[in-house]
Structure formats: C-alpha cells, structure tokens
C-alpha cells in the first residue's frame, strides 16, 4: 500500500479558489488503445440494449435525438 501526502495551498485567497482532487489510484495498465465498436453494431436496429455486469443490469438506450443514455 502506498501513502501519498498532499499539501494544500497557503493563504486565504488560495483556499477560496476552486480546486479538483485527482484520483490517487494507479492507472490501469493497458496493452494498447481501447477497443472500439459502433453503436449500430451494439444495438443492431433496436433502441435499447441490456448489459449485464457483476450481477447488475444496465440499459443502453438510444433517444429520439440520437443520443445514448446508460442507466442502471
């Protein structure tokens, strides 16, 4: 287990600025670029696809505006 210590900016004005915490998790090692597949290949003419992941069902839906929505 690795412990990382973060120091915060000093002074009142520094603390009033918004900041974002970054993940301390190590990036996943990848053998190359992510695999790509078209939404048409996934949906095969349908408007909804159910994806099973770790015992849960996720619904990938194609909206009237041709946007994709993934819900649990």
Structural commentary:
- The protein is α+β, with helices and mostly antiparallel strands.
- The chain has a domain of 36 residues: Complement Module, domain 1 (Ribbon).
- Helix content is 14%, strand content 24%.
- It has 2 helices and 3 strands.
- A 3-stranded antiparallel beta sheet has the order 1-2-3, with no helix packed on it.
- The mean pLDDT is 82.
Topology, please?
Layout: H1 12-16, H2 39-43, E1 48-53, E2 56-62, E3 68-71
Antiparallel strand pairs: 1-2, 2-3
* CATH class wording of the domain at 37-72: Mainly Beta
SS elements, strand count: 3
The CATH architecture of the domain at 37-72 can be named as Ribbon
The CATH superfamily title of the domain at 37-72: Complement Module, domain 1
Report on the biggest sheet.
3 strands, antiparallel
Identify the notable features of this structure and list them briefly.
72 residues, alpha+beta, Complement Module, domain 1, three-stranded antiparallel β-sheet, 2 helices, 3 strands, elongated
What is the structure about, briefly put?
The chain is of the alpha+beta class and about 70 residues long. The chain has helices at about 10-15, 40-45; strands spanning about 50-55, 55-60, 70. The radius of gyration is 21 Å and the shape is elongated.
């Amino acid at each position: 287990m690795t412990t990382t210590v973060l120091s915060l900016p000093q002074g009142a004005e520094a603390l009033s600025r918004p900041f974002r915490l970054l993940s301390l998790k190590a990036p996943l090692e990848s053998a190359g670029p992510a695999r790509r597949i078209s939404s048409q290949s996934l949906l095969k003419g349908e408007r909804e696809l159910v994806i099973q992941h770790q015992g849960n069902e996720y619904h990938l839906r194609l909206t009237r505006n041709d946007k994709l929505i993934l819900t649990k």
